[in-house]
Amino acid sequence: QVQLVESGGGLVQPGGSLRLSCAASGFTFSSYFMRWYRQAPGKEREWVATITNGGDGTSYLDSVKGRFTISRDNDKNTVYLQMSSLKPDDTAVYYCNCNLYVRGNYWGQGTQVTVSS
Questions:
Q1: 8 Å CB contact between 109 and 116
Q2: What is the pLDDT of residue 103?
Q3: d(Cα 9, Cα 5) in Å, to the nearest integer?
Q4: pLDDT value for 20
Q5: What is the percentage of the chain residues whose pLDDT exceeds 70?
Q6: How far apart are the first and last CA of the chain?
Q7: Measured distance CA(98)–CA(38) in Å, rounded
Q8: Is the pLDDT assigned to residue 51 strictly greater than 90?
Q9: C-beta neighbour count of 84 within 10 angstroms
Q10: Is residue 60 predicted with pLDDT exceeding 90?
Q11: CA 117, CA 113: separation in Å to the nearest integer?
Q12: Cα–Cα distances in angstroms (integers) from residue 20 to residues 80, 87, 104, in the given order
């Protein structure tokens, strides 16, 4: 079955960095775009970043451009989100996502990122 398992969240001070990972299984990872979303307390889930199946194309939410970098390792079936210059507004649960179209739209369990001094 399809599984997406995030890791790497935690508590970090403003200006700090974290790298999130999402390990995928149960589908042909290298064939699909991958995405990161986040959901802050009391807010709707929002898209953060997308990477193409080959890793040669990326796109970002305006508020994270220049601070976050999405990448993938198709040999390890893993997608990453490198987050730098973190701000309190980046505090949220971060989710990995893959839309497998007819097979369904899948989410990980989420990993908490808290930016606070």
A1: no
A2: 83
A3: 12
A4: 98
A5: 100
A6: 40
A7: 14
A8: yes
A9: 14
A10: yes
A11: 13
A12: 5, 16, 23
Alpha carbon separation from 103 to 55, 62, 98 (Å, rounded): 22, 30, 10
What is the per-residue pLDDT across 25-34, written as a single tens digit (0 to 9) for each?
Answer: 999 999 999 9
CB 6 within 8 A of CB 107: no
Q: Dig out the tokens for 88 from the structure.
A: 């309190």
**Phi, psi (5° rounding) for residue 33?**
-60, 150
- Written as six digits, the tokens of 101 are 């179209």
Residue carrying structure tokens 């001094």: 117
What is the sign of the dihedral through the CA atoms of 30, 33, 26 and 46?
A: positive
Amino acid at 92: A
CB-CB contact of 96 with 113 (8 Å): no
Q: Is 102 exposed, middle or buried (0-12, 13-18, 19+ CB in 10 A)?
A: exposed
Q: Of 26, 12, 16, 6, which Cα lies nearest the Cα of 79?
A: 6
Give the total residue count for the chain: 117
Supply 16's token pair: 């700090």
